[in-house]
Structures are given as structure tokens and as C-alpha cells.
Amino acid sequence: MGTRTPVTPVSSTPTIRGVLRRSVFWVVAGVGALLVAVIAFVLTGSGGTAGPRLGADNPAPAGGMAVVEVLRQQGVTVVPVDTLDEAGDATAAAGNATLFVSDESGYLSTAQLARLDDLSSRVVVVDPDFLALQALAPDVGFGGVSTADSLSAECTLPAAERAETISPGGKTLGLPAGAAGYTGCFPGENDTYSVIERVTDDRTVTLVADTAVFANDEIATYGNAALALNLLGAVDTLVWYLPTLADVPVTGPPSLGALTPGWVTPVLLLLVGVTITAMVWRGRRFGPLVAENLPVVVRASETMEGRARLYARTSARLRAIDAIRIGAVARMAQAAGLPRTAPLDQVIRAVAALTARPPERVQAVLVGEMPGSDAAMMALSDAIDELERATALAARPPGAGPSPTAPPSTGRMEP
């Protein structure tokens, strides 16, 4: 026998070019998503808010950075705070300070609002809600939105007289006629005003109905800047107070986050990072497996005995008999002169015709019967072997010699 030329296994490990070719779509998709995110950020960031409304460091149209910077240039010390306790500490440290308050979200309770009057002798409240009016100016109510084309001071309040006019169309406050201790400025219809000041003893509370007077986009129109600077720059220190969730009283039992030590969160994040790194490290793939011939000769009996032990251990009788049937059907189809791709029904009819047996019996042996015990499986295996021998004998041409015997097995599984 000639020496067979060894077959060189074809490696299916992906090349760098192949990986890049398959990754083009995801790279393009990622770049496109990044561009869309950048464009959306630019479009929304230019007109959106960069912080809370009237924030001291918010340069957006609704922020208050413009008036704060002008006050600082004029020598006023502006102290931004976001809790009531910080506001109290800042006003106490300054001694004489103006307190600016804008509680847009209504975080302060009635008791907290009542404290504002005690923190400073000069308090300016912007866009007060119902609780703020009840706590600081009980006689003042809501007046709706002004429909006047212009708003003139028409009062003796120095800051309003210097401003002369403010931008029209904003919110107003209602003040009953003859209310003692109150001064209304920039009047509208039906006893409504845009600015109301209440003076009691040595304390002054100024209520500004609309935030446009202090907002960046309106501060330079009409007399808004003059009104804001005169109200907030009367003394050397201005405490700029915007309440936050930190002012909301905590009720109920402490949360899990409050009970958890501070080191737990960093440790959890570190563990998550280590887990992801380990998954990437140990879970990497170098590509599909390469098909190679075994460098050793494996005895066929070893494979047969090992598979037989597995079948016996799991009582997989049907799988074992199916393996026998598949081999027998292929050999009987070859003996009957049928192609290897012939359907099972055609093989059954051909075998039944050659062996003069009922097709139902042949089908039962090759397909139908299911062994329920080891003895039944052995009996069915013998029946299959007997049917295969009968088929081979019937398919032998007349006058042919005895059936050739199979060559002796070498006990090895050849490649």
C-alpha cells in the first residue's frame, strides 16, 4: 500500500483583516451614535438650563448669574447656599446681610418659612407660593398674570423709583386696599402689584411676584437691573438661598443607604469592575477550533465499550438500539441497490420485498419496537441482525458463491 499524504488541517482562526471587516458595522454605528449624542447635547445645552432657576452660577436664560456677577463687581459679597441651616449660618456670620430666597419647588414647610423672617432684617422672596405668603405676608394673595403693556413704579419704594419700569406680562400679587404696613409697586389691574414690601419694626420683607426681574434673559430690559441691584445690593453681603431636597424633613425609619457604611459602595464598585475584568480575561475566544487528525490510533473496541458503558449507566436502550438500526438500515439499503440517501420507507419496502416479509414486521424491527428492558433490547438486536442477514442473502445474485466473509478486524479505528 502506498503512503497516504497527510492532510494539512485548515485553520479557521480569524485574521486581523477579517475581524476588522466584521467590526466595520459596529464601529460605524458607534461613531454615528456618538455624533447624534454630541449634536443633541449641543442643541439642548444651548437653550436648556445649566442649573436651577435663578441659580447663582447658572448662565442659562433662566439663571441668575448675571445679576450675581454685577453685584460682586460692585463689592457685594454673594454667598450661595442651598439649605436653611447654611442660610442661617451665613447671615449670622455676616451680621448684616440681605437674604434672597427662591423656593421654586416648594421644599420649605410653614415652620421653615417662618424662620426666614428671623434670619435677616432684609429678606427678598421671589415668586412666593401660598405657604410663603401665609408665613411672611398673610394679607397678600395671588393676583394672576399682568396684562398691562407697561409697569411703572408708582410707589415710594426707593429701589422701585430708581427702576421706574420693569418688564410687563409676569405674575402679580394681590394686596387689599388699606392694608397696614404694606407698600405695593408696579400696579396692574384690580389692586394687583408686581412688587410688595412689608415693613414691621426693623425688618423688611420684599415680595417679587415674577422671576423675570432677576433672570439672565430679562435683567437687561426695562428697569429690571436697577430694581434687582438696589434690592439686593443695599448692604455688603447677600446670601443667595435656593432651597433643595436637603431642606425636606426626613420622616420614617432610616433608609438602607443611610445605614450602610461609606466604604460599602466603593467596594461594590471595585468588585463589579474586577468581575467584568475577569470575564473578559478568562472568557476570551481565539476563534473556532481547528480540525486535526489524531496523532494516535484509537482502538475501535475502546470507543465501542466506552459508549456501551454510557448507554448502560443511563439505561439509554432506545439510543443504543437506534445506533444499531442506523447502521443496519444503511447496509441493507446498499445490499438492496438503493442509494444512501433513500428514504426509510423505500428501504423498508425493498427489504420486505427481498425477504418476503410483511412490511409491518420490517418496520417494527427497524423503527417501531421500543425495548423496555435489557432482555428486550438484546432480542430486538438479534432480530435486526437476522433481518440484515436475510436481506444480504436474498440480494445475492443466483449462482453466486457463498457470501464473502468480512475481513478480520484489526481492533483499531483508522482515520
Protein architecture, described:
InterPro entries: DUF4350. Keywords: Membrane, Transmembrane, Transmembrane helix. Helix 4 crosses helix 5 and helix 11 runs parallel beside helix 14 (374-394). It is built from 14 helices and eleven strands. The protein has 415 residues and is α/β, with parallel strands linked by helices. The protein has helices at residues 16-47, 65-73, 84-94, 110-119, 130-136, 158-163, 224-232, 256-259, 264-282, 300-313, 317-335, 344-355, 359-368, 374-394, and strands spanning 77-81, 97-101, 122-126, 141-145, 151-152, 165-166, 171-174, 182-187, 192-200, 203-208, 237-241. The longest helix has 32 residues, at 16-47. The protein is rod-shaped, with a radius of gyration of 47 Å. Residues 1-13 and 404-415 have low confidence and may be disordered. The strands form two sheets. Strands 1, 2, 3, 4, 7, 8, 9, 10 and 11 form a nine-stranded mixed beta sheet that branches. Among the domains are: 64-247, Rossmann fold; 303-393, no CATH class.
General shape: rod-shaped
From the alpha carbons, calculate the radius of gyration and give it in angstroms.
47 Å
Number of strands: 11
Q: Give the uncertain stretches in residue-range form.
A: 1-13, 404-415
Mean pLDDT: 83
Region (Disordered): 391-415
Protein name: DUF4350 domain-containing protein
Organism: Cryobacterium adonitolivorans
Transmembrane segments: 24-43, 225-243, 263-281
Key features of this structure:
415 residues, alpha/beta, Rossmann fold, two-stranded antiparallel sheet, disordered N terminus, disordered C terminus
